[in-house]
Amino acid sequence: MKIMTLIDRPNLYGSEIHTLDILTKLKEKNYELTLISLRDGPLLKKMASLNIRYYIFNMSWMLFCANFIKLLCFIRKENPNILHCHQPKALFFGVIIGLILRIPVVITVHSQPYDHSRLKKNMLMRYVVYCFHSFIHTFSCCFSSRIIYVSKNMFNESRYKGKATFISNWLPSSLEEYDGGGRELSSKNINIKFISVGSVTKSKGIDLLYSFFELLESHSNIKYQVSIFGGIQEESIKGLNNKNIRLNGYSDNIYSELKKADFFILLSRSETFGLSYLEAMYFGLPVICLDLENLNEIIPTCNIKVDKDDINSGVLKFLEFISTNVYCDVSKENYLHSKSFNCDESICEIERIYSLIKRSE
User: Using CA atoms, how far apart are residues 282 and 276, in angstroms rounded to an integer?
Assistant: First the structure.
């Protein structure tokens, strides 16, 4: 079967690692694969190492006409059985191309319109961006052949359940075998090591994270270090200062850093799935996060969940947590729970969708 995958930003974060796993597994099963990207990025180097064909058609929301025509002609020539699209821009253009060429289009929804609008400070711009992405989302869902949601909450709220499927995201297949359960907290008061993985932005709660540790210092004499890994938005860290918090930027070696840490903290204001939390749980780390509905799907209640409007109570929960002997039990539960998010089972379900579409042609 000939599968063409269309993606907008070929980085190596949640949705891109998700796409990489699908292509890696399908390659092993001898599917004929091509990746189309709407810009350059590190994911494409992975395609080269896997010997998967990839092509770049640079397209923005404002300047797309010339390359859209080229992309349309290229896909017509390739004539794939299925076009599988990830990320909003790829969903939108992929669905249009599918309608024109009568090619079945599968879309995977990794985000909600709100996730894009909350990045804007200006309320008018926030409203405009929300309306724009709501239109993109609605159009893509209406005219696609099948919809895959990686979040059960998004699936439950969908108006397109007749052609929608919930397939949970999963632990990356690149993870090494690791017995992360049953870790012990080395010392309650001597240099506790926190790690955070995610873009350094207010949408990912960088301001809330700094507030958390400022309050922690006011309540206790605990010594700590925080290592943050992710792209840094300079505007988001203006006025934030803490000598115990280190911004490391993007890293290819996150897993070794997770092994060294005692706690994972990410106070993101919104999450569709939350892959970085799941990876931390695999390495046996207790999690500190905001109390978000989508995160309840993957993070057991024994972890530390914080009200975004009451960070102080979250700090008190943390102090209570380390004053008891629950660390080892939570570590084990997190590890075992993370193992249930199996890559192979989810990709078999995606293959089933492909087969159903192929048979209905």
Answer: 10
Residue 196: beta bridge partners? 228
**Residues 324-352: pLDDT tens digits?**
889 999 999 999 999 999 889 999 999 99
The full DSSP string for 193-221 is EEEEES-BSTTTTHHHHHHHHHHHHHH--
Residues 200 and 113 occupy one common structural domain:
no
Residues 68, 197: one domain?
no
Cα–Cα distance for residue pair 180/177, rounded to 1 Å: 9
**What's the CATH code of the domain at 275?**
3.40.50.2000
| CA atoms of 208 and 238, how far apart (whole Å) | 13
Q: Can you tell me the distance from the alpha carbon of 341 to that of 8, in angstroms, rounded to the nearest whole number?
A: 25
| Per-residue pLDDT tens over the stretch 73-112 | 999 999 999 999 999 999 999 999 999 999 999 999 998 8
Report the number of distinct structural domains present in the chain: 2
In sequence order, what are the residues at sequence separation of 6 or more whose Cβ sits closer than 8 angstroms to the Cβ of residue 331?
Answer: 180, 181, 182, 183, 184, 284, 285, 286
Greatest Cα pair distance, the chain, in angstroms, is: 66
Look at the block and give the residue holding tokens 């439950």: 156
* 180 within a domain of the structure (yes/no): no
Does residue 319 sit within a domain?
yes
Phi-psi region of 185 (alpha: psi -120 to 50; beta: other; left: phi over 0): beta
Let me know: does 286 contact 280? Beta carbons within 8 Å: no
Letter string b/e over residues 226-257, b meaning 16 or more CB atoms within 10 A of that residue's CB: bbbbbebbeebbeeeeeeebeebeeeeebbeb
Global pTM value: 0.86
CB-based contacts of 207: which residues, under 8 Å, 6+ apart? 236, 240
String of b and e for 119-139 (b: at least 16 CB within 10 Å)?
A: eeeeeeebeebbeebeebbee
Helices assigned H by DSSP within 7-111: 14-28, 43-49, 65-78, 88-101
Tell me: do 56 and 162 sit in the same domain. Answer: yes
